Sequence to fold (226 residues):
Amino acid sequence: MSFADGPVARLGVMGGTFDPIHHGHLVTAEEALWQFGLDRVVFVPTGRPWMKSDREVAEAEDRYLMTVIATSANPWFTVSRMEIERDGPTYTVDTLDAVREEVGDECSLFFITGADAILDIFQWKDPEDVLSRAHFIAATRPGYDIARFEREAPTRHPNISVMDIPALAISSSDIRRRVAAGEPIRYLVPEGVQTYIVKAGLYRSPGVYGDTGGRKDGGSEVTWSR
Ligand code: ATP
Ligand code: MG
Fold:
């Protein structure tokens, strides 16, 4: 497995469920690429996410394909199958160790997250342990309490940077809810991702994906794609 066609000195790693991938993810990765002078960003869709065990998550293969579709036009973005091919839950430390294995000791690793997700990382592990493996870039995210982030995350640590990005109040949960409710998602996700969602019939049943609290059976026939 390789992340690039040549040597990479500074690699960004963007982990996520990507259920589905949306423009918030893409802008975050692009800004990190630019602001931190990265050579590449590798998107790593999770296998079975341990944080989200309370709801159904779309098939890993669907999430992987949507991530490939969304990133294919950007020569500096790649997608890795390493997590979806591994059994069991995904932990950031394991992902970073696997990436390190691929790229060797000389490469600088940057783990890109939203300010919400970085707190989850520090909640379960010794921060020093995680922080020794990469430089963490925490992107500002609308609707998220940055004061809480500054209180609870070790923001003064030399291996953490807060990154301001053009605010996009887009989330995968809202996209799933919209699809189930028959609302538009055009311009929230890349066109190819929208097409894939319709083709594969993803997110149609309210409740199955856990965000609408509705019934768990019966797909509503939606006519949202125009
Ligand atoms: P969900 O609503 O299902 O949690 P999500 O939109 O948060 O989905 P994830 O796959 O959970 O997407 O997120 C992957 C990474 O991208 C996380 O680090 C998250 O904080 C970050 N991220 C997601 N959306 C945005 C956004 N709009 N702006 C900045 N960062 C984002
Ligand atoms: Mg999330």
